[in-house]
Amino acid sequence: MKIIITQQEAMQKGVWSEVAQMFGVQKEDETWANEQYILTEEQARQLGFIS
Asked: Can you tell which superkingdom this protein's organism belongs to (predicted)?
């Protein structure tokens, strides 16, 4: 199973820092609100999206 989350959704859910770290996004990197990140099942569990 794969979960897709945008940068904006991650910020709204309060998990953007964790998602950014998972994908190696640095503060100085340019990102867009609608940029999508594909989470593995394990990553989604770590973030509390699935149990």
From this structure: Bacteria
